[in-house]
Amino acid sequence: MRIAYIILAHNSPDQLARLIYKLNTDDVSFFIHIDKKADSKIYHQVFTQFNELSNVFFVKRYNSAWGSFDAVRASLEGIKSIVETGTYFDYVIHLSGQDYLINSNTQIRNFLQENKGREFLEYFPLPYSKWTGGGLRRIEYWHIRWNDNDFCIPEKREFKSPIASLLYSFMILLLPKKRKLPQGFALYGGSAFWCLSGECVKYINDFVKQNPKFVNRFNFTSLADELFYQILILNSPFKDKVVNNNMRYIDWSEVNAYHPRILEKKDFEKIRQSEKLFARKFDTSKDSDILDMIDKMILLSK
Fold it and tell me: Among 26, 36, 169, 171, fewest CB within 10 Å belongs to which?
């Protein structure tokens, strides 16, 4: 059972290193993306620490700002790099640098072996009641970021900057009121993180190369990483193999939050009782004890 991990990170190099070391076994490889906007010291630290390991690869870097399509491009770059190695991986798992395993490597491997041929991806059809505008606003409107200003066209918005207001008025005149939806594709959304078979990942890589118009349609889309893979995979030959589960313990208890809660010591029992493989998200600058607890009381006992 060979496993490839695509890990997108932008800060906390020590936390990222801890994740990599904890997951590292003879049958595992890592494809690391460090956000292009990250401090050069962060990239240098991670690169220096892992560059000499034969199973660690660094992929082309993008300005993968939260909500931007470049976050998808970063993961696609990881997929491309995996395929280009020529090595067959039974599964590819997409993580962030703030994820952590909550089952041992042996248990992760056994779970994937027992479920071989299945794709693990959270999904729901659009429109979705818990997303603003059912989620269609993300696709139909133009979402443009400029100089730390987010423009959503044709949505009305006031800006403090006169220049931003002028630019917004100009774009309103130039751009169509609504964008056309991807033709022939049923629309889905879900979590940005997934666990996919090697066959599915190869299909994605081939599809992306052969269908640039489909890929480019997600430019100027909001939170495209919660749409792209769902729409692609659930309109593919792999649709019937998808299990609606991303195998992540995530706490979305904060109402209307854009990000999940940072997990802390008080969350330990819920994490221990979870049947998921991974959890997110953690921040060792706020609570490092929780990872120690997972190591000692979960991973060492399994």
Answer: 26
Pairing of strands 149-153, 142-146: antiparallel
Indicate the pTM of the whole model: 0.92
Residue carrying the six token digits 């729409």: 231
Statement to judge: residues 95 and 213 lie in one domain:
yes
- 161 in the same domain as 17: no
Do the beta carbons of residue 246 and residue 121 sit within 8 Å? yes
Residue 236, CA distances (Å) to 88, 159, 180, 218, 240 in order: 21, 42, 21, 17, 9
Domain count, the chain: 2
User: CA 104 → CA 8, 37, 301, distances in Å?
Assistant: 21, 33, 9
- Same domain? 19 vs 166: no
Distances (CA, A) of 69 to 35, 45, 96, 124, 288: 13, 26, 16, 20, 31
**103/215 same-domain check:** yes
Same domain, residue pair 197 and 120 = yes
Average pLDDT over residues 226-230: 97
Per-residue pLDDT tens for 49-68? 998 899 999 999 998 777 78
Model confidence at 255: pLDDT above 70: no
Q: Give the type of residue at 38.
A: A
Same domain, yes or no: 262 and 291? yes
Is the pLDDT higher at 188 or at 63?
188
Tokens for 29?
A: 């490889």
Same structural domain for residues 70 and 150?
no
**106 three-class SS:** helix
Helix (H, G, I), strand (E, B) or coil at 249: strand
Residue 24 structural domain: 3-128+189-299
Structure tokens at 72: 């998808």
Angle of CA points 174, 258, 205, to nearest 5°: 70
Percent of the chain with pLDDT over 90: 74
